[in-house]
Amino acid sequence: MTDTIKSVVASIIWGFRDAVLGTRRVLNLDADLQVEETEKKSNEPLTTLARRRLEKNKHKDVVKEHVPRVTNRIFMCCAWNGGVCWLSIFVFHYMLLPCIYWFTELISGGSLTHGLVWSWLSPLLSWTFSALWVLPLFVLSKIINCFWFQDIADAAYLKMRGKPKSLTLSTFIADMLFSVTLQAFFLIQATMANSLPIYGVGQLVSVLHFCLLYSLYTFEYKWYNMGLEVHTRLSLIEVNWPYFVGFGLPMALATSLSSSTVISGCIFSILFPLFIISANDAQEPAQPFEFPLKLFTPVRVITNAVFHRSMTNKTRNPSGNQATPKRTPTHDAKTSR
Question: Would the CA dihedral through 264, 267, 273, 279 be positive or negative?
Answer without folding.
Answer: negative
